């Protein structure tokens, strides 16, 4: 993979495990930003991307490279190239802080020790494990989530509140319609309305009284004389309601 290729591999130097530390620095920077640190289209631009951030390599590093003529002229200056998008890259024109957009000194120091031209001066894996940035990341404790205060009316879920509000509006509209309809009917036929209200009240009373009850033992029947006396004590208008109310008076359950 070209984006994570170390400069000694590109220039034709002998290489060892130090190439993995270079790749580690490139991958760590990409995990932080989401973009490759050195996105070269080919090996020439790849080296140009590295020089754009790290500057020119040491002169001795260039002279001992077997592929130096591909990337540098006879005086050791990099060859000017233009990529497919018409962009030119100039050495030492960017800073690692500007590219990563961070001022975390420990993180930047870790990356700078990985991205060193000379493989012998590059940070080793054992040194990386002892770096302050690694131990700082391990010592971080999860922060408690802040508890946000809510209003008193948010004890119910939003859907429940919405249903309650819609139910209130619906009930108020229905009550207004019933009131309007009742008023119109009252104007047309007062007697019919009163009779209808009475029938409706009787139906409601009858529906409330007809409650299913467990099976009871037949109570002893009253004599006809006692029944006639109770009927005679009530007025004709109250006889119906009296008989319905008496249905609630039940004999004791055996």
From TrEMBL:
Name of the encoding gene: DYRK4
Region Disordered: list its residue ranges.
Answer: 138-201
Organism per entry: Homo sapiens
User: What family classification does the UniProt entry report for this protein?
Assistant: Belongs to the protein kinase superfamily. CMGC Ser/Thr protein kinase family. MNB/DYRK subfamily.
The cross-references to InterPro entries, in alphabetical order and at most eight, read: Kinase-like_dom_sf, Prot_kinase_dom, Ser_Thr_dual-spec_kinase
Q: Which PANTHER family match?
A: DUAL SPECIFICITY PROTEIN KINASE, DUAL SPECIFICITY TYROSINE-PHOSPHORYLATION-REGULATED KINASE 4
Name the domain of life: Eukaryota
Protein name, as recorded: Dual-specificity tyrosine-(Y)-phosphorylation regulated kinase 4
Q: Which Pfam families match?
A: Pkinase (PF00069)
Extract the GO molecular function terms from the UniProt entry: ATP binding; protein serine/threonine kinase activity
Listed A to Z, the keywords are:
ATP-binding, Kinase, Nucleotide-binding, Serine/threonine-protein kinase, Transferase
UniProt feature, compositional bias: Basic and acidic residues: 173-191
Residues annotated as domain Protein kinase: 1-134
């Amino acid at each position: 993979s070209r984006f994570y290729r170390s400069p000694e591999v590109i220039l034709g130097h002998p290489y060892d495990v130090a190439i993995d530390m270079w790749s580690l620095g490139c991958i760590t920077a990409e995990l932080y930003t989401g973009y490759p640190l050195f996105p070269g289209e080919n090996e020439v631009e790849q080296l140009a991307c590295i020089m754009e951030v790290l500057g020119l390599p040491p002169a001795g590093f260039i002279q001992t490279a077997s592929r130096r003529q591909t990337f540098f002229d006879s005086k050791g200056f990099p060859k000017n190239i233009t990529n497919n998008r018409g962009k030119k890259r100039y050495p030492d024109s960017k800073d690692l802080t500007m590219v990563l957009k961070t001022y975390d000194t420990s993180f930047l120091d870790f990356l700078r020790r990985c991205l060193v031209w000379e493989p012998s001066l590059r940070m080793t894996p054992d040194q990386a494990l002892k770096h302050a940035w690694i131990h700082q990341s391990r010592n971080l404790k999860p922060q408690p989530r802040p508890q946000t205060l809510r209003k008193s009316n948010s004890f119910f879920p939003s859907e429940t509140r919405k249903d309650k509000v819609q139910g209130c509006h619906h009930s108020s509209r229905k009550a207004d319609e019933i009131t309007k309809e009742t008023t119109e009917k009252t104007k047309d036929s007062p007697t019919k309305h009163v009779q209808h209200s009475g029938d409706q009240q009787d139906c409601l009373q009858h529906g409330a009284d007809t409650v299913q009850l467990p099976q009871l033992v037949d109570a002893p029947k009253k004599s006809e004389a006692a029944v006639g006396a109770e009927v005679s004590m009530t007025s004709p208008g109250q006889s119906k309601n009296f008989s319905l109310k008496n249905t609630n008076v039940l004999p004791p359950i055996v």
